Each structure stands twice: as C-alpha cells, then as structure tokens.
C-alpha cells in the first residue's frame, strides 16, 4: 500500500473515531436510551468527550516525537476541531435544552456558579483557536503569531479539568485522572523545553 493511500485511510479512521461518540449519543437519544435524566446525561457526555479530545490533541506532539512519527501532527487540527464541536454542542445543549434560552438564568449561572464561569471562560478562549484553524488564517497570522495564539490551549485544558473537578459532588477520582493525564502532557512539554537549556556545556580540555 502506498504512503498516500495509508495516510488517507488513517485520516478516515481518525474522523470515524472522533465522530463515533456523537453518532452513538445521537442514536441513544433517538432510542430513548439515555436513562432517567437524558438532558443531564447528554450534557455530561458531550462535555467529557470534548475534554477527552482536547487531551488527545495535546498528546499528539509528544507521541509524534516519542514514536518518531512526525506525520501524526497532521491529525492535530481535525482532533482539535472535533473537540471544539463537542464543547459547542455541550454548551448549546445547556443553553437550548437545559435552560430553554433563558438568558437571564444563564447569566446568573455564569456569575454565580464557579464551574460555569470557568467552563464559559474555557469556551470563549477556545473560539479564536477554532476560527484560526484554517490554512488561510495561519497564512494571515503568520506561523509565529499563530503558534503564540494557540498556546492558549495550555490554559484552556486546565480550565476544562477545573470545571469538571468543581462540578463533581461526590467522586472526584474521574476529574483527578484527567488532571493527572494533563499534568503528564504538560510536564513532558516543560521537560522538552528545559532539557536543552539545562544541558551543561562540555568542559574544555
Ligand atoms: C472547554 C470547555 C468545556 C469542557 C472541556 C467541559 C467539560 C465538561 C465535563 C467533563 C463535564 C462533566 C461530565 C461528567 O460528569 O461526566 C461537564 C459538565 C457540565 N458542563 Fe461543561 N465543559 C466546558 C464548557 C462548559 C460551558 C461553557 C458550560 C455552560 C456555560 C458548561 C456547562 C456544563 C454543565 C451544566 C455540566 C453538567 C453539570 C451537572 O450535570 O451537574 N460546560 N463539562
């Protein structure tokens, strides 16, 4: 199999993997299989898949470097845009289905419930990243400014984890596990950044 065909097949597989949870959720909603509180389950599942894909997106660079597979980087944008789609649907379900577009109640929620304030901040910061993910935007911004802007992701994902941690009432283990994965992924970046700077110049003979 040629490299191009293999790349195309992997690309289709990435698309299907990102789309599968959404299709499964849509099917469960259609089938009435979302349990006793379908709206809450829908919001929660869309949120958790948004967070998972954000973490997968953050894992691409370390994986590409560790496995020496630079071609993996090409999937980062697709995964990031799917993460944004899940978060957008998560927010839309909250606004439209949970709150029935009651903007006053939504405003109150944003102001009074810290987990909603943090979730909203993460979403607002995510929008410019999604908007600037086209080739045209990358060219317009220039790679340096584009890269600087996209460093916002290092703030957005921790906010997503904090949002999850604050809304959980009893078992804090799931958000802590996501937090540990995030710490590992960010820790790798700090290590990768610091390594060449820490390397001691060899002593002259
Ligand atoms: C990057 C942005 C966001 C991420 C990654 C995210 C992620 C999550 C996660 C992981 C959960 C818990 C899922 C579970 O319990 O299994 C959740 C729940 C929830 N999120 Fe978000 N979220 C984000 C933004 C928002 C925004 C902008 C809002 C609304 C303004 C929001 C409202 C909610 C609500 C209402 C719940 C359910 C709380 C409950 O059932 O008690 N989220 N979110």
From TrEMBL:
Keyword terms: Cell membrane, Electron transport, Flavoprotein, FMN, Heme, Iron, Membrane, Metal-binding, Transmembrane, Transmembrane helix, Transport
Lineage of the species this protein comes from: Bacteria, Pseudomonadati, Pseudomonadota, Alphaproteobacteria, Caulobacterales
HAMAP family: MsrQ
UniProt membrane topology term: Multi-pass membrane protein
Quaternary data: Heterodimer of a catalytic subunit (MsrP) and a heme-binding subunit (MsrQ).
Record field: transmembrane: 9-27, 47-67, 79-95, 115-131, 152-170, 176-194
Domain Ferric oxidoreductase: 46-160
Subcellular location: Cell membrane; Membrane
Molecular function GO labels: electron transfer activity; FMN binding; heme binding; metal ion binding; oxidoreductase activity, acting on diphenols and related substances as donors
Top-level division of the source organism's lineage: Bacteria
Necessary cofactors: FMN; heme b
Gene Ontology terms: cellular component: plasma membrane
Protein name: Protein-methionine-sulfoxide reductase heme-binding subunit MsrQ
Function: Part of the MsrPQ system that repairs oxidized periplasmic proteins containing methionine sulfoxide residues (Met-O), using respiratory chain electrons. Thus protects these proteins from oxidative-stress damage caused by reactive species of oxygen and chlorine generated by the host defense mechanisms. MsrPQ is essential for the maintenance of envelope integrity under bleach stress, rescuing a wide series of structurally unrelated periplasmic proteins from methionine oxidation.
Pfam families xrefs: Ferric_reduct (PF01794)
InterPro entries documented for this protein: Fe3_Rdtase_TM_dom (IPR013130), MsrQ-like (IPR022837)
Family label: Belongs to the MsrQ family.
Broad class of the protein's primary localization: membrane
């Amino acid at each position: 199999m040629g490299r191009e065909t293999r790349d195309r097949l992997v690309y289709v597989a990435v698309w299907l993997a990102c789309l599968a949870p959404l299709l499964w959720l849509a099917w469960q909603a259609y089938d009435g299989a979302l349990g006793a509180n379908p709206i809450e389950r829908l919001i929660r599942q869309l949120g958790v898949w948004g967070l998972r894909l954000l973490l997968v997106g953050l894992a691409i660079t370390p994986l590409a470097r560790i496995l020496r597979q630079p071609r993996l980087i090409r999937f980062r944008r697709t995964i990031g845009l799917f993460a944004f789609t899940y978060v957008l649907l998560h927010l839309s379900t909250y606004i439209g289905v949970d709150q029935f577009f009651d903007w006053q109640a939504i405003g109150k929620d944003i102001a009074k419930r810290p987990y909603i304030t943090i979730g909203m901040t993460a979403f607002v910061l995510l929008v410019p990243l999604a908007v600037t993910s086209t080739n045209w935007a990358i060219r317009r911004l220039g790679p340096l400014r584009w890269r600087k802007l996209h460093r916002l992701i290092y703030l957005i994902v921790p906010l997503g984890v904090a949002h999850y941690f604050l809304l959980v009432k009893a078992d804090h283990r799931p958000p802590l596990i996501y937090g540990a994965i995030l710490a590992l992924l960010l820790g790798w970046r700090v290590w990768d950044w610091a390594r060449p700077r820490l390397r001691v110049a060899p002593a002259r003979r």
